[in-house]
Amino acid sequence: MANVLDLLALASQRAPGQRSFQLLCERDLPRLDAFFLSFDFDQRRTYFGGGVSDQAVRDYCRAIDWRSTMVIARSGPYCLEAVAMLVFLPPDHAIFEFSVGCPLSCNQRSIVAELLNLAIEIGALGHRTLLVRRELANADLLSLLRDNDLAVFDGEKVELGLATTRCAAAC
User: Fold this and answer.
1) To 10 degrees, what angle do helices 41-48 and 54-62 make?
2) CATH label of the domain that carries residue 104
């Protein structure tokens, strides 16, 4: 866990302004609710795969299994600005599904790249495979994965083996 905290601290030093990267836990549910509720209709449709109500967003957050999910957040001075979800899949948790949400209207590529790098570094600690479902992927995330020679695009998903990968494509 110390390695993960060190990675988050280094990423926070690189972030501009009063921004930091942190791991969220169950007690951060109100912040996570507020983050996902801030998505407009199109952002919800992109992240969740369809238009979802405010209650469905709250239910989604409450259904998170914190034993098999890691949430990395980029916080700004007032609220969460981006979230990466790493869901470790059974039976052996060797694969984790990665998703990223960022409702900011600015160029998100550097934010998504930092979250992807953190996910890769964290995942590589256990020699896992990163899995991204293409239909729910952020456009910047797909672009970064296309730039990575080790990413395998297969119909509905993209897989990235982390046993040999130690960092994502540069911004």
Assistant:
1) 40
2) 3.40.630.30
